[in-house]
Design goal:
The protein is of the alpha+beta class and 629 residues long. Helices cover 24% and strands 31% of the residues.
């Protein structure tokens, strides 16, 4: 017996030693080639596998891999994908990525071919001048010429100060290490119409202008409205992920209740309109006036409207006026002209003062700001503005934001203001978008049926090895925030839909582990609930006038259907998500191509009464021609 146990222990030791020899740890750093600064959230993946990790704030990573020669892919937002061949004995790496994105907005500089050039000088022509040894920059009139070893670039200056917040894409998390995913819902769709503007002008959008969740939520989905006492219904389903068939895709969908607009509470609206010099041009103030004229036509006698404008200073153009006096409101809009600097903060203050005078307990009071976001006079810092807006939000006054214009558009500021103001954020690139915002979706734009809506998803490690939320990067919440009623979250208006997608790496099979942390020792507890549950969705919301949240739950049982067998709306959402990831050159786009997106979307058009899905197909075709990377 003793001899048998000795042999058994020796065999186990041999197996353990052999297994240990088959695994190595590769560590390294990822930095910007010019600035030498660390790049966080860069995805480092063994090519052709799900063995991956991400860099931390210091640009450092640690990846457990098999021994032997392999190829690593390093992918970070705003940088081309870089492949690195790692030899069998190599365990430490220093990776440098070269960006084509703005590096320093204060200096307005870009990097191109390892040279720094002004970001307000857009390429208009490339001229090959031979292989001279000169390295100098000269400016003649309005043309800048850069001479290098092989090429010079003739550039026509085009001033562009558009500003977008950086998006660090969500990465995979293991279900045993981080079983909870918590985020605020988002009904905004500004990113989609802004991307459409870029593509219609023959330009690829900046990666950080592409918020995938807003792309997905732009479309109408035929989810069934809630029938019970809750103003929101939850739906869940899953299918094989189209851009990575080894993975699965989970859809979490919400639908808010429909309410006849005649039964909605009275609206007290303050139109806050930027009439500064930056708003001159056909796609700015003239489009603003047409948009508000459309809204005016939807007003009821019990609704009231005031108009505040701001440029170098703020002023009242129209005091509170009944919705029945449409001629007076339209005449006040028509007389507006653009000119001067931009005292946006002062305008917001004045608009809130008037809204406060109009506000009553049972009314819907809202400031609607129309601007390009280029505040440069008075209260203009993000901190000052958000504190002011949060204070007014607590009084029951919401702020919705309509973005206009291009070239100096401040998307980051406007998204922040709408988020803090519990309002919608839309980018109006044409009259059709204005019509949709204020006619087709009048109730959803202006009237809230559920506020502070949060989602928390718990994953079952029996079915889910790891997961990633597609989009919603700027809506993530701490898990503790879910039950905290003091934590603000997004609102849902009348008839709104919200769709969230999770890409899932299934447990078992041939899927290799995602390398985030070492296995935990104490978390192997007994599963509570049905063993076939893939995940549980929890939702919290408050009634529009309430202070305490109400909890809802929905369980998703396991299924393994092909994406072609999934509902039409699911297929459409998946195709839009794939398109957004292609536009961002995402590390997680998998095998998706523009041709595949066209095929998936083409089979998901449905009735398409408004033509939005047909328009999407045309945008994909334009991006396919423009995207040469």
């Amino acid at each position: 017996m003793k001899k048998y146990l000795t042999s058994l222990l020796l065999s186990c030791l041999v197996v353990f030693t052999a297994t240990a020899q088959q695994v190595r740890v590769i560590t390294g750093t990822v930095t910007d080639s010019l600035l030498k600064s660390p790049i966080a959230n860069a995805v480092v993946r063994v090519k052709g596998t799900d063995v991956l990790t991400a860099t931390d704030k210091k640009g450092q990573f640690s990846l457990k891999t098999a021994t032997g020669k392999l190829i690593l892919e390093v992918n970070a937002s705003g940088y081309p994908v870089k492949e690195i061949t790692v030899s069998a004995g190599q365990n430490k790496l220093k990776v440098q990525l070269t960006s084509l994105q703005p590096l320093d907005k204060k200096r307005n500089q870009y990097v191109m071919h390892d040279r720094v050039i002004p970001s307000n000088a857009a390429l208009s022509e490339v001229v090959v001048v031979g292989y001279g040894a000169q390295k100098r920059m000269s400016t003649t009139g309005s043309v800048t010429t850069i001479r290098g070893n092989q090429m010079s670039y003739v550039q026509a200056p085009v001033h562009n100060t558009e500003d977008y917040s950086p998006i660090n894409e969500n990465i995979f998390h293991t279900a045993t290490d981080q079983p909870l995913s918590t985020f605020s819902i988002d009904v905004d769709r500004a990113s989609y119409s802004n991307v459409r503007r870029f593509l219609n002008q023959g330009m690829m959008p900046e990666p950080d202008a592409v918020r995938v969740e807003e792309m997905i939520n732009y479309f109408d989905y035929q989810y069934k409205a809630p029938e019970g006492k809750d103003p929101v219904a939850i739906y869940t389903d899953m299918a094989i992920c189209p851009w990575n068939t080894k993975h699965q895709l989970v859809r979490v969908a919400l639908k808010s209740k429909q309410v006849d607009t005649r039964n909605l509470p009275a609206a007290n609206l303050v139109f806050l309109i930027d009439v500064s010099g930056s708003m001159s041009g056909e796609n700015r103030l003239p489009l603003v006036k047409r948009a508000f004229a459309v809204l005016t036509e939807q007003l009821r006698p019990e609704d009231r409207v005031a108009i505040v404008v701001y440029a170098g200073a703020a002023g009242v153009v129209l005091p509170a006026t009944s919705g029945s006096d449409k001629k007076k409101i339209l005449a006040a809009l028509e007389q507006l002209e653009a000119g001067g600097s931009t005292a946006g903060g002062e305008g917001i203050k004045l608009a809130y003062n008037i809204a406060g005078e109009l506000h009553s307990k049972n009314s819907n009071t809202r400031v609607i700001l129309a601007t390009d976001g280029d505040f440069n006079v008075g209260v203009s810092s993000d901190g000052e503005l958000t504190r002011m807006i949060e204070k007014e939000r607590e009084k029951g006054i919401s702020l919705s934001v309509l973005g206009f214009g291009m070239g100096n558009y401040k998307d980051n500021k406007l998204e922040l203001l709408a988020d803090k103001g519990n309002g919608n954020y839309a980018y109006i690139d044409n009259f059709e978008e204005a019509r949709r915002t204020f006619v087709t979706e009048f109730g959803g734009t202006l009237f809230t049926v559920a506020k502070d809506v949060k989602l928390q998803v718990e994953f079952n490690p029996q079915f889910v090895q790891s997961y990633r939320l597609v989009g919603y990067e700027n809506r993530l919440l701490a898990n503790e925030d879910f039950n905290n009623d003091k934590k603000d979250a997004g609102d849902m208006g009348v008839g709104h839909t919200v769709t969230a997608l999770y890409e899932i790496i299934p447990s078992g099979g041939k899927n290799e582990a995602v390398n985030w942390v070492d296995p935990l020792k104490y978390q192997q507890g007994k599963v509570i609930g049905n063993k076939s549950e893939v995940l549980t969705v929890k939702l919290r919301y408050k009634q529009p006038a309430g202070d305490h949240s109400i909890l809802m739950e929905k369980v998703l049982p396991y299924s393994n259907q092909e994406i072609t067998d999934a509902p039409e709306d699911f297929r459409m959402a998946a195709s839009v998500a794939a398109f957004g990831q292609l536009l961002r050159h995402s590390a997680f786009k998998g095998t998706a191509t523009y041709d595949q997106v066209l095929s998936w979307a083409g089979n998901s058009r449905g009735t398409d009464a408004e033509g939005y899905r047909a328009e999407f197909i045309q945008l994909v075709k334009k991006a396919m021609l423009l995207d040469k990377e």
